[in-house]
Design a protein that fits this description.
This protein has 231 residues and is α/β, with parallel strands linked by helices. The chain has one domain: 3-Layer(aba) Sandwich (Rossmann fold). The protein contains 9 helices and 10 strands. The chain has a 6-stranded mixed sheet with strand order 6-7-8-3-9-10, with helices on both faces. A hairpin with a 2-residue loop joins β9 and β10.
Length: 231
């Protein structure tokens, strides 16, 4: 469904990605692991169109989208939960969720019930401002907002960052639920190895803008993986 094919990406004269290739399929969680500053978030921005690539191809459902605008990628079924959540702090929870309506035909402009099934706290807080929620609740809201768009590819950039353990468990259950529907490909960027290991079907490890190791979950050797991810 998603194929990132030997992409390079530059920030001015600095090269941030070097020949990076990954793929993601429906019903599977593809995890991208690595320390801070190795290019994980840059890769996610390339996939969703927030930064253009220098070389290579990004194919979505067989079509090269490397020059496609972010809004067109969203309409094609690609949703992002960015690092830092990026919710609208002055809008209510309800209004934050409704920002996803802009991508939908009028008949589909409602919040799917599964959002409240996975994150019941959001239903209890519909009229609270997003900025008044805890960090974990804001993360749940960011995932719920992405789900409103009915994505076929969900890109999650470090959803556990700064989140309390109980909500990390809720987020993990939500990702498993979405994977198990078989209708969505999920790309998960993480530094929290145990969380990523328990969820992933396939993985890629990045270092200095390149993929240095990849495989399926059965290939993960804890001691080796922890060494690759250690600072």
């Amino acid at each position: 469904m998603l194929e990132v094919d030997h992409i390079d990406l530059h920030y001015g004269a600095a090269q941030a990605l070097r020949g990076v290739s990954i793929d993601a399929m429906p019903g599977r969680v593809t995890t991208v692991l690595g320390r801070n500053g190795v290019g994980k978030t840059t890769l996610m921005r390339a996939i969703v169109g927030r930064h253009g690539i220098s070389n290579g191809a990004i194919r979505w459902e067989g079509k090269d989208i490397a020059r496609t605008r972010p809004d067109a990628r969203a309409r094609a079924g690609i949703a992002s939960v960015p690092q830092g959540r990026e919710i609208f702090p002055l809008l209510t929870v309800q209004e934050n969720l409704e920002t996803g309506y802009s991508l939908l035909p009028r008949r589909e402009r409602h919040v799917p019930e599964e959002v409240f099934h996975l994150f019941p706290v959001l239903k209890d807080m519909l009229w609270r401002r997003g900025g008044d929620l805890s960090g974990g609740q804001q993360q749940q809201l960011a995932i719920g907002r992405a789900m409103v768009t009915r994505p076929r590819l969900l890109v999650l950039d470090e959803p556990t960052e700064g989140i309390q353990p109980s909500i990390i468990q809720d987020i993990g259950r939500a990702i498993k639920y979405l994977r198990d529907t078989g209708e969505m490909a999920i790309v998960l960027v993480e530094q929290y190895y145990d969380f990523a290991r328990d969820l992933c079907d396939s993985f890629y490890v990045m270092d200095r803008g390149q993929i240095v190791k990849s495989g399926v979950r059965a290939d993960m050797v804890d001691s080796e993986m922890r060494e690759l991810l250690s600072v």
